[in-house]
Amino acid sequence: MRLSNEWFTALSESENGELVTVMGRDSLGEFIQSGKLKERVEITWKYEANEKGMPTDEVAEQMETVEETLRKAMEKDKLAILTSVYTGEGEKVWVYYTRTVRVFGERLNEALASFELLPISIYTEVDPDWEEYKDMYEMKQWAVD
After folding, report:
1. CA 18, 22, 27 angle in degrees (round to 5)?
2. Could you tell me which residues come within 8 angstroms of residue 123 by beta carbon, excluding any fewer than 6 positions away?
3. What DSSP string describes 64-106?
4. Is 69 exposed, middle or buried, given 0-12, 13-18 or 19+ CB atoms closer than 10 A?
5. Under a CB-based contact definition with an 8 Å cutoff, are residues 20 and 12 in contact?
6. Crossing angle of helices 101-112 and 57-75, rounded to 10°
7. How far is residue 17's CA from residue 29's CA, in Å, rounded to a whole number?
8. DSSP readout, 8-77?
């Protein structure tokens, strides 16, 4: 299975009516059908939002560095793949699908060991049918160029 790096960006609204930017990964059908990545991990970073609900430039840069570090660590052997990223309303959420939450956690700690303590929380759920991804993917029809 080849992991694509094709993404789309869509704009959505939170329950409070605030703008949320959604980045979704495209071309993941083979991974869904394989049934190997049954667990979903959501990493949430809460931040002090500007008037538009977005992070400051400095925090956005930190988040980008963390995202790149985690992606390399998780996707090098396809232990987990990043499927979507939500940013807005004072939080950024990275959604991964993984083979095993236990090993994901170990690798996450290794990958982030060189960083200062980050304001992140982690939520996991068994999601063998990729329900969260499929719900997010429906937003592709509103993708912005």
Report:
1. 160
2. 41, 42, 44
3. HHHHHHHHHHHHTTTSEEEEEEEEETTEEEEEEEES-HHHHHH
4. middle
5. yes
6. 130
7. 31
8. EEEEEE-TTS-EEEEEEE---HHHHHH----EEEEEEEE----TTSPPPHHHHHHHHHHHHHHHHHHHTT
Give me 25's structure tokens: 């990964």
Q: Is 56 left (phi over 0), alpha (psi -120 to 50) or beta?
A: beta
Find where tokens 């060189």 sit: 114
pTM for the whole thing? 0.96
Tokens of 54: 């977005």
pLDDT, tens digit (0-9, with 9 covering 90-100), for 79-136? 999 999 999 999 999 999 999 999 999 999 999 999 999 999 999 999 999 999 999 9
Residue with tokens 């963390």: 66
User: Is there a contact between 57 and 49 (Cβ–Cβ < 8 Å)?
Assistant: no
CA 4 to centroid of chain Cα atoms: 15
